[in-house]
């Protein structure tokens, strides 16, 4: 069965030839159906596709639908140029720029030169975060613990992933843990081989960790063999960041006090941005993450000299 392409939006037969709309020319399914003379199904598919295209064009004229699509694309890709967004959405770059300005004004993304990166959402309360991505946190924690050597002095940040690290330290691993993470300190209270030093300061109740200038002052007098720090977001351009200013100061103090600084972070947070950065890629030795981390960002961080370990 032979076929030709029609510029009209119809499918028809002419002199034994199936005539297809030009916009269907690349579809293997269409070719198979044409070979089987299944014109009725071809017409149905054509109608569905034409309807979808029309609906898409209408949606892209609606600001809310268009901006949601931008957020979806950024969430998937981590960072996109305005020109790429314009091409993907079939709209002008001027329209994209106006949408990016609007979305940044309400805190849903951060504009960078030529495009945008997504912001992370406000973190949940400590108790709510405990039940999220449990298997992923366990895998990250196990990998983190494997980096601790006998008699190491270990800095441990606040958060539920670092809590999982404390819980994963096995009997017989002798070390000193310095932490502002109250649940982690409590988890190590009965560990016979771990000495625990709790940093004092103001209790940040949503995260159950200690923050403030006193914690930062104490950190300036310390030196760690290794530290494990959480992050709300990690991005090549803006580094490792948190959504809370006071927590960020503690994270920066931990990173600066350690010979080896390790960021423990779930893959969904990589490629995103939070308001307060505590370290650049050059200041972090390793990233331990999970299988949800975007492959392109893993390559970018490795290109910056960061050792990226995918756990699980």
Automatic annotation (TrEMBL):
Residues 63-118 form the HTH deoR-type domain. GO terms for molecular function: DNA binding. Keywords: DNA-binding, Repressor, Transcription, Transcription regulation. Gene3D superfamilies: 3.40.50.1360, Winged helix-like DNA-binding domain superfamily/Winged helix DNA-binding domain (1.10.10.10). Pfam families: DeoRC (PF00455), HTH_DeoR (PF08220). InterPro entries: ArsR-like_HTH, Carb_Metab_HTH_regulators, DeoR-like_C, DeoR_HTH, NagB/RpiA_transferase-like, Tscrpt_reg_HTH_DeoR_CS, WH-like_DNA-bd_sf, WH_DNA-bd_sf. SMART domains: DeoRC, HTH_DEOR. This is DeoR/GlpR family DNA-binding transcription regulator. It comes from Erwinia aeris.
């Amino acid at each position: 069965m032979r076929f030709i392409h029609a510029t009209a939006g119809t499918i028809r037969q002419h002199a034994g030839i199936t005539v297809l709309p030009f916009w269907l020319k690349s579809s293997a399914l269409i070719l198979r159906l044409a070979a089987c003379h299944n014109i009725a199904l071809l017409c149905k598919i054509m109608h569905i596709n034409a309807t979808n295209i029309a609906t898409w064009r209408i949606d892209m004229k609606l600001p809310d639908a268009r901006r949601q699509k931008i957020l979806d694309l950024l969430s998937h890709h981590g960072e996109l140029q305005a020109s790429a967004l314009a091409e993907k959405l079939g709209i002008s770059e001027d329209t994209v720029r106006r949408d990016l300005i609007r979305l940044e004004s309400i805190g849903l993304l951060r504009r960078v030169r030529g495009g945008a990166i997504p912001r992370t959402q406000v973190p949940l309360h400590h108790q709510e975060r405990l039940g999220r991505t449990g298997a992923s946190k366990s895998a990250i924690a196990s990998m983190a613990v494997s980096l601790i050597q006998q008699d190491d002095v270990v800095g441990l940040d606040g958060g539920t992933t670092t809590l999982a690290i404390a819980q994963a330290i096995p009997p017989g691993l002798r070390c000193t843990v310095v932490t502002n993470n109250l649940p982690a300190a409590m988890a190590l209270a009965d560990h016979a081989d771990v000495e625990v030093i709790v940093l004092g300061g103001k209790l940040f109740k949503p995260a159950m960790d200690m923050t403030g200038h006193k914690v930062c002052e104490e950190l300036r007098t310390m030196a760690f063999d290794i530290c494990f720090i959480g992050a709300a977001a990690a991005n090549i351009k803006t580094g490792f960041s948190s959504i809370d200013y006071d927590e960020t100061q503690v994270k920066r103090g931990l990173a600066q006090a350690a010979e080896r600084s390790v960021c423990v972070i779930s893959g969904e947070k990589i490629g995103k941005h939070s308001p307060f950065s505590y370290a650049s890629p050059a200041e972090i030795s390793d990233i331990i993450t999970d299988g949800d981390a975007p492959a392109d960002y893993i390559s970018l961080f490795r290109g910056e000299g960061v050792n990226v370990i995918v756990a699980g």
